[in-house]
Amino acid sequence: MTNATVRLDLFLWFARLAKTRGLAQAIAEAGHMRIDGRVVDRAHAAVRVGNVLSFPLHGRVRIIRVTALPARRGAAGEALLCYEDLSPGHENDLQQRAGD
To answer: pTM value?
Structure first.
């Protein structure tokens, strides 16, 4: 098993959960971020594969499980492969989009 980690703010930015690196830092330092249930208020907190992140974003609580650590900010399709969305109501959102 690997001990690879990436900074929390970089993960949020690379995975396209934050539009800018500055916004990713603000999200990480706001005091509302949790990694595996622990409150985190540092942008440099370590994120590993398997961690569950929960945080408020765009008026709702996002819960994601890290499935891969990106090395760069790539295309949106690449970003989606880095996490699994466990947010409440996420399945309903996907079904609605598929029906459109």
So the answer is: 0.84
